[in-house]
Amino acid sequence: MIPVKALITGSSGFVAGHLADYLYRSNGEIYGLSWEGGGAGGKFKKVYVADVRDEHKIKEILNEIRPDYVYHLAGVSSVGRSWKNLRETLEVNMFGALSILAGVCELGLPCRVLIVGSAEEYGITGAHPVEEDHPLHPVSPYGLSKMAQELLARQYVSAYGVDAVLVRPFNHIGPGQSPDFVVSDFARQVARIEKGLQEPVLEVGNLDVIRDFTDVRDVVRAYAELMQHGKAGEVYNVCAGSGVSIRAVLDILISLSGREISVRIDERKLRPVENPVLVGSNEKICRAAGWRPQIAMAESLAGVLNHWRKNV
Ligand code: GDD
User: Fold this and answer.
1) Which pLDDT score, from 0 to 100, does residue 36 have?
2) Domains in the chain and their CATH numbers?
3) Which residue of 76, 78, 79 sits with most ligand 1 atoms within 8 Å of its CB, as the best mutation to test the pocket?
4) Closest residue CA from atom 6 of ligand 1
5) How far is the CA of 171 from the centre of ligand 1 (A)?
6) If you measure from the C-alpha of residue 46 to the centroid of ligand 1, how many angstroms do you get, rounded to a whole number?
7) Is residue 129 reached through a cis peptide bond, with omega within 30 degrees of 0 on the bond before it?
8) Please, which of 67, 80, 278, 292 could form a disulfide with 5 given CB 3.0 to 4.6 Å?
């Protein structure tokens, strides 16, 4: 049997590592693409080094691999940083997707593409849980870049018949995530405090917001399931369907430590504007792919804290 070929862009990233672990178990042939090289130990048959904005180079790579599936994970992923990094966020997220879509289209590859958008595309929703047909009014440069990327992908589906499935993941967490993101940031600080590397004061941003968290291992399973069962041009939320405040996340992490830890607001972590509540409906993906998250939040948080206990 000819092995299924999957290309994961952004292969040195957090989600890509977990996706490669997942796909590797099904004996697929996995290729990576990363601007800095590298990718989850030994799972990739080959990792190509290229900038996703380089349309010509990306087309060459696509032609060499001729993948059956492209998981387009490459992109700028931090909402917080996107405020200071507008041009790079817009360029990488929009023109990166353009390189993949144009390459697949011009080469006429019989290949399915997963375009990874974001819950940030919704902006301030008012409605909870938010469904996929809710209007998009992103309030961050990052959200705008992901909306642009999604609209571009839809045009490639409707105008040229490119087989692209679209996802809007909500917050995801797990071992190996960068401390740019809230759970990893807090867990790292707790681990540093436990080791006496930081005074027992945890620096935080806005604790009042509510977010919908899913373990990254459930997220990558959703992506793989949608590659099989999703419909071209359709968009699917990937989320738990329930919200938790950042304050509650912080409390759980501190209680897992059992230390006396106080909290201080770091003004630099506050954002100019953000959605107070971002909770998604996962009914559509449940119906289409039979997917439901399986890993409980408490287990994910303990896993992230244990990861940092070994890595600070
Ligand atoms: N990073 C961080 N650090 N965020 C904090 C902190 C802190 O110390 N304190 C409070 N927060 C709040 C942020 O203001 C935000 O409301 C929430 O915690 C989550 O922040 P992040 O973990 O940075 O994630 P995000 O919600 O901005 O974006 C994530 O989710 C999107 C989907 O909803 C990322 O994974 C994106 O790539 C993803 O698209």
Assistant:
1) 79
2) 4-173+213-240+281-289 (3.40.50.720), 182-209+243-278+297-311 (3.90.25.10)
3) 79
4) 205
5) 7
6) 32
7) yes
8) 67
